[in-house]
Backbone:
């Protein structure tokens, strides 16, 4: 079973930045299209950023121009650089499989997520 471990969340003021990391166990990572998801209280989980195995990216309109997804296949790690954060970015952030067309997928399991809170 694939294990996903997210980290890097925290409390940040509006306009601030955070960098999230997600380590994925196993040897499937390097050929997988990965995505970052988020779930705010009372809302459905949404896919916000995707990166293919060769680095092609796609973003939800709500984060385009502010968030950057990247990956290091040697470290089985996917990152999410979040800049110009807004209160509406507050959510628990998760990584998992995804499609470049922003279709949610998963490995059959989810990590614990990392909490991002944007507040003054």
Residues:
């Amino acid at each position: 079973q694939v294990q996903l471990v997210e980290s890097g969340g925290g409390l940040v003021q509006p306009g601030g930045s955070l960098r999230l990391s997600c380590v994925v166990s196993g040897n499937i990572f390097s050929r997988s299209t990965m995505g970052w998801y988020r779930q705010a209280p009372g809302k459905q989980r949404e896919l916000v950023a995707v990166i293919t195995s060769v680095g092609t990216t796609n973003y939800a309109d709500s984060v385009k121009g502010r968030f950057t997804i990247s990956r290091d296949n040697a470290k089985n790690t996917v990152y999410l650089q979040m800049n110009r954060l807004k209160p509406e970015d507050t959510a628990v952030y998760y990584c998992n499989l995804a499609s470049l067309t922003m279709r949610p997928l998963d490995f059959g399991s989810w990590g614990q997520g990392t909490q991002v809170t944007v507040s003054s």
About this structure: The CA atoms of residues 4 and 24 lie 5 Å apart. The chain has a mean pLDDT of 96.
